[in-house]
Model the fold of this input.
Amino acid sequence: MNNTQKPSKSFGDRLTEFFTNNHGKAASISSKSVAFETISPPKPELRRKAQLKYRSRVIRSSNAIAHLEYSPTSIPEKPLVEGEEWTRFVCISDTHTHEIEVPDGDVLLHSGDLTNLGTEKDFEKTMKWLCGLPHKVKIIIAGNHDLTLHTDWYEKHSPNFHLRAGKQDINKILPLLKGKGAQASNLVYLQDEVYRFKLKENGREWSVYGSPWSPEFCNWAFGYEPEDGKALVSKFPQTDILLTHGPPYALLDLTTTGELAGCKALRKRLASLKPRLHLFGHIHEAHGAYLHEWDKGATLPKVQNHEERGVEDSTSLEAELERLYVPQGLDEEQQNYTADNDDAELEEDFSSDDGLGNLDEEGNGKEKSQNAPSERPTLFVNAAAWPMGKLASRDGPKMNMFGGPGFQAVIVDLKD
Done:
C-alpha cells in the first residue's frame, strides 16, 4: 500500500483543470461570487459544420467607425475618402490563452487577460500567436488573470494559484513580452505607461496609455479597492487611446449576476481625458461598444449591451443606440444611479485646475498637454472574447466559441 500523499491542489490548480477540461464554461465575474454557467461549444468537428450566425453590427460617426460583428469571410473595408487618412485598430481582450480569429489592420490592441493564470507555458503560447499576427504595431496590457506580471502581489500569492505547477519565474516571462521576438514584431507591452508611434514617416502620431488595473475581485492580480480608485486614475494622462482592463462604472460592465462591476472613479476621470478610443474587457458578458459625443452631453449615460441588438443589417449610430438599454433588476442604489450623482465627492479631485492640461472655464490651461482632449467623440469598446451570458447563447447554447458571433475582435477605424 502506498501511503505517499499527493500535494493538495491550490485554487489556481483547480481553476487550471477547469479551464483545461471545461473551457466551454464561463465564470461570471462578481465581487460577491464566482458562478459558472454551462455554455459548452460543440466538438471541433461539429463546430466546423455548424452554421454560425454572424450579424452586421456597426456604429458610425464622421470620424469613428466600429464594426462589432461581421462575416469573417467578408471583412469591412477601411474608409477610402479622398483627402482623408484613416487608421484601423483591431481590438481584442480576455483571450485567456485562446487563439481567436483576428482581422488584419494597422494596429492590434489587447486589453488584458492574455492568459489563464499567467504561467510561462501560457505566455509562450499567447506571445507566439500575437507576435505572428500581421499588424504593423501591437500594443498589449495585462489583466487580473495574468498573475505573474503583478510581481509584488505574486510573491505573496503564488502558492494559492501555482502550488503544483510551481512558482513561475518572471525573469523567463518578461522576455516573452519585451524581448527580441516581441521587438521584431513591433509588439509593445504597457504597464502604467505611455507609448507613442507613427505608422509612416510624416504621418500622424498616436499616443496610447495602458493600465492593467481593475476593481478588486476575489484577491486576484492588479486589483484595487474603491477608495484607491481616485488616486490611481488621476495618474492617467491625456492620450488618444486608453487601454484599461476594467470598465468604467455603468458602461458595458453589467455581470450575469446583475452587478455593475466598473470603476466610478474611472468613469468620472474620462470626462477630463476624452480619449478617441477607450478599450477594456474584464466583464466578458458585457461585450459591446458605445460612442459618446461630448458636445451633446458632458456626462456619460448608463449603457449596456443586449443579446438581440443588431439583428438587422448595418445600422446607423442612432439605430444602434436605440438598442442600448438601461439594465433592469438592479438593486436600489444601482437603479437610482445617474451620471449627475456619480460620486460627487470626486469633483474636486478632477477639477479643471488639476495640472493635467485641462482647461478652465475661460479656456486657460496649466501646461496644456500635446494630446489635450478635443470635442471629438469617445468610442468605448468592451472587446472581451470569452463568450458568456445571454449574448453567448443568442443562437443556442452550442453556437458559441471564443471570438465567435457576438464576441469577435472589434474593428475600429479612426480618422487621423
The chain has eleven helices and 17 strands.
